[in-house]
Write a structure and sequence with these properties.
Distance between the termini: 47 Å
Number of domains: 1
Number of strands: 0
Keywords: Membrane, Transmembrane, Transmembrane helix
Number of helices: 5
Transmembrane segments: 6-26, 63-86, 98-119, 125-148
Largest sheet: none
Strand content: under 5%
Order of helices and strands: HHHHH
Structural class: mainly alpha
Radius of gyration: 16 Å
Shape: globular
Helix content: 55-70%
Amino acid sequence: MGFSPIGLIVSLAVLAPNLLLLPFPPRDQPAARRIPPVLTWVERAGQGLCLVVPAITEPGAVVWWWAPVVAAALAGYCALWLRYLLRGRSHALLFEPVWRIPVPMALLPVVAFLATAAWLGNPWIALAAVVLAAGHIPISLLTAGATASR
């Protein structure tokens, strides 16, 4: 245990764009979908872990060549948020594929946290990212499917 400024920065960098939903919510309603409660619990646990664990665990052996991977994942994530804002804030844009990659707005935060785990030599961040992936990606896929069939 210990403080990691880099971990805190990555956590905040992933969280910050999500705060755009407060002043700029989708202009349309999400499609009706049934999400198993266990997935919701796992997703929330993963979100909490990914916010806290990177900041409160000290790095191990730092592998600097992972830093550009983290930066690329964060840049892609921010670009998708920009797409959401510039293309009319449709709920579907939060789940729309890019280059045949399904739910990139769910995948890129997981990639960012897994790459951060490799960068900082910290298996606890990787575990937090796996928990996030186990809930966030299936929920996003279910939402994308419901949105596409609308």
